């Protein structure tokens, strides 16, 4: 009996060892593991394959991009930690985002929706939800700490517009939102119900109800989660019946239901741009975006470098942070390798009358000096 228990203990011990993750980086109170790095590299390779890369081109692109995987992991952890330090809340936005996804999938039952997420992502629902929340936290930090501080005077925008007018020449085009009510697989009663639903939505839209929200809740199109938003369309891109329905209409116009191959389409005119040079007022935000983008990347990199400079950061030999802060010591310390300090009897006797204060003895691998943000908040 004892022998069988012994072998069971050995088996369990072996299982525990096989499940242990190797830590390759410590970032304040968080860690990066080898398994995470392998996972991210596989995801990166999958993205590159979807872009059509293969063979030597794929290997070169993968090797080049892989150099920044650890940098991005550290960036992500530091931004989430900063959000906690700033006491940023995103629960409302998170719930809305999950609700939008649920509306798009049309899975009302919470348990079935969670099972759908597990099937599609291959990860537990709570992990998926946590990553959505972390993304929102990072976005909010970047917006509040960096984006809002990059500002331009109106004369700067006008100067860019005046010297780059060729960038603001355009063809006549229209911007639409759509609600699509599918009739696929429906019998006569189902077709009648779909048409009635479409007509009711037209009435609601013309009374001023928010079209984007109606699209999110009712549309069967893939762009439902985006409020039915469609890309800019030129006249040649549209069906003849849709041209007749919307081309000469003003902003805010909502069409009658238009019979499509497998359903009914309802369209709202968001904007109709005429051909020629756009007025400055029409493209002011486009101009601002063109000036903003070149400044954003270096500003974000500078901010993340400053966070590194004050963070507790250790990186195991063999791994490299391509965004390392100049002069920052990230030497790896392994508590298991620390040797006990040796002292003489005289030194012990001399220290015998000193008081020991609980909680002031530093834990190996930590720093008693405050060096940055703690993720334990």
Describe the structure.
The protein has 377 residues and is mainly alpha-helical. Helices cover 51% and strands 11% of the residues. It has 13 helices and 8 strands. A 3-stranded antiparallel β-sheet has the order 2-1-8. Strands 4-6-5 form a 3-stranded antiparallel β-sheet, sandwiched between helices. The protein has a two-stranded antiparallel ribbon with strand order 3-7. A hairpin with a 2-residue loop joins β5 and β6. α4 crosses α7, α5 packs across α7 and α8 crosses α12. The chain is globular. The protein starts with a helix and ends in a 27-residue tail after the last helix. The N terminus and C terminus are likely disordered.
- Secondary structure class reads mainly alpha
For the largest sheet, list the strands in their spatial order. Answer: 2-1-8
Mean pLDDT: 85
User: How far is it from the N-terminal to the C-terminal residue, by CA?
Assistant: 48 Å
Number of helices: 13
Provide the helix percentage: 40-55%
What is the CATH third-level topology name of the domain at 172-274?
Chitinase A, domain 3
Name of the CATH class of the domain at 172-274: Alpha Beta
Shape: globular
Main beta sheet strand tally, sense and closure: 3 strands, antiparallel
Label the CATH architecture of the domain at 172-274.
Answer: Roll
